[in-house]
Design goal:
Length: 55
């Protein structure tokens, strides 16, 4: 699980963009300083560097 800090005006766009990525199995808006939570599945530890999304 990843917790991200996103500006409130960019939360919807960032969540939608990230939710389209194959490794993301869930994107949820939350309250608090880390307002975007992602559930991500990677096949191995090397895969964590293979995925990059510019938001």
């Amino acid at each position: 699980m990843l917790k991200l800090r996103v500006s409130p005006d960019g939360l919807d766009g960032a969540g939608c963009l990230l939710a389209e990525q194959p490794a993301v199995h869930g994107a949820f808006a939350t309250s608090g300083p880390y307002n975007l939570s992602l559930h991500v599945w990677l096949p191995d530890l090397a895969g964590r560097r293979a995925h990059g999304v510019r938001v």
